Amino acid sequence: MQKRSILVICIIAALAIVALAVALTGRSGPVNSGENKEEDSSVAMPNPWSEAASVQEAVEGAGLDSFTLPEVFNCLAKGYQGPALRFTEGLVEAVYQDDDDRLVFRKGAGSEDVSGDFNTYPDQWEIIWKGLAIQCSGSNGEVRLGRWYFGGNAYSLSFNSGVDGRPGLSEGDVTSLVNQIQ
Question: N or C: the chain end with fewer CB closer than 10 Å?
């Protein structure tokens, strides 16, 4: 009789463990071994950016009045491809890129930072050029991020190098580019 009681207790304990496992996993059927996987039903955040074939298409898509890009890159005497143009509501972006480096120009409506650059830089300073305050971030006088505000719009240029030790942009490079961007 005592063996039978122990056997009943063991069976009840085993059933309790199975019931607990089912309750914790939320599954009542056999475990899927990877074959015939069910589709992931999670919902991803939609990409707010749209590609544009021209500056005019990007400007219209963003709802801005204009976006003039630099025609002359004295500071960038290498083979940059681009611009790749994108827009979202109230913001347009032009990306020039080569194998190692990336130069991004942005214009957005309002007075908020539109750079999308959340890096921490060791140095921050301001260049006053033709009455325009350009907020610079970088190190050792080399600019990695420039931001300015003019005519109810926010602008930024950012330079990111995939090569360690490659210098950033000089203040002269930045003012030359800012002079051409509207």
Answer: N
- Domain borders along the chain are 1-29, 50-180
Q: What tokens appear for 86 in the block?
A: 């994108």
Residues 6+ positions from 37 with CB-CB distance below 8 Å? none
Cβ pair 129, 117 in contact under 8 A:
no
pLDDT string in tens for the chain (182-residue length): 566 666 556 566 666 565 555 555 554 444 444 444 455 567 888 889 999 999 999 999 999 999 998 876 644 556 677 889 999 999 999 998 887 788 899 999 999 999 999 999 999 999 999 999 999 999 888 999 999 999 999 999 998 876 566 678 889 888 888 888 87
**Amino acid at site 77:** A
Q: Are 171 and 132 in contact (CB under 8 A)?
A: no
Give the C-alpha distances (Å, rounded to integers) separating 124 from 95, 136, 145.
23, 6, 9
Residues pairing with 161 in the sheet = 101
Q: Using an 8 Å Cβ cutoff, are 84 and 102 in contact?
A: no
Residue found under tokens 């002269």:
172
Are 176 and 74 spatial neighbours (Cβ–Cβ below 8 Å)?
yes
Considering only CA atoms, which of 111, 110, 85 is closest in space to residue 96?
A: 85
